[in-house]
Amino acid sequence: MPAEDNAIPETVVLLHGLARTPRSMLGAGLWFQRAGFQVAYVGYPSRKTGIAEAVRSHVAPKLAEIAARRGAGRIHFVTHSLGGIVFRAWAAGYAENYPLGRAVLLAPPNQGSEIVDRLGGWFVARQIMGPVLQELGTGENSTPRRLGAVPAETGVIMGDQANLPFFRQWLGPESDGVVTVKGGRVEGIQDFLVVPAGHTWIMWRPGVLAAAEHFIRHGRFPTDASGRDG
Questions:
Q1: Dihedral sign, CA of 188, 154, 19, 195?
Q2: Bridge partners of 80?
Q3: Nearest residue to 110 (alpha-carbon basis) of 130, 132, 91, 83
Q4: Which of 42, 90, 156, 198 has the lowest tally of Cβ within 10 angstroms?
Q5: Which residues contact 99 (CB under 8 A, 6 or more apart)?
Q6: The pLDDT of residue 8 is above 80
């Protein structure tokens, strides 16, 4: 692992969420760089393309470049929100050809989004969020529901502090304001952690990043993890 001076550095790939850019994962990138990993930021036009096209035209080519780098070692993933679904879509079609390591999905809508169920038909919502909005409902034909089990050694971290109270009436008390806690569960996960965080900035919380690093190194979250900072 990266802690050994003579070891081949391993890579942590960072995938951002909907209506974000790789800059939103900068804090996570700096964290893992300090931890001794190589870091790669992978972007995709989340508001302009569907999930399959994002994988085919943007994520898969970039990951092919990363894997070809000399000394890249195993490739791990840390994702936020929609980035977790993009990772799952990439893994379903490409992972067997890569030295895939572990993955930590932060606040992923693994069972779709109740908010999309409500807003998916609104013209304004479609204009703001783009075509991917139609893929993210909770119905059995939505993209997250059709992707099936996650790859082995995948952990999920969900927040339970609703930072967007407007949606609380749709999501109930156990949510991060955008995704319900139970909506982060999916077949095949190796570990599951709930932290006191909201959806928007969960990937900037030091306690969350410490738990994510622990999982990347050990394949489980620390038993005393709370996601609290300090």
A1: positive
A2: 106
A3: 83
A4: 198
A5: 67, 72, 73, 74, 75
A6: no
Which of left, alpha, beta for 71 (phi over 0: left; psi -120 to 50: alpha)? left
Tens digit of each residue's pLDDT (9 = 90 or more) over 102-147: 999 999 999 998 887 777 565 555 666 767 888 998 999 999 999 9
139 vs 130: CA distance, rounded Å: 19
Three-state DSSP state, 24: helix
In this predicted structure, the answer to whether residue 170 has a pLDDT above a threshold of 90 is: no
Q: Residues 189, 223: contact at Cβ < 8 Å?
A: no
Using left for φ > 0, alpha for ψ between -120 and 50, and beta otherwise, residue 188 falls in left
Alpha-carbon distance values, 31 to 35, 109, 158, 211, 212 (Å): 6, 24, 19, 12, 10
H-type alpha helices, 75-188: 82-94, 114-119, 123-129, 143-146, 168-171
Q: Is the dihedral of CA 219, 1, 228, 168 positive or negative?
A: negative
Q: Can you list the domains of the chain with their CATH numbers?
A: 11-217 (3.40.50.1820)
Answer yes or no: are the C-beta atoms of 67 and 95 closer than 8 Å: no
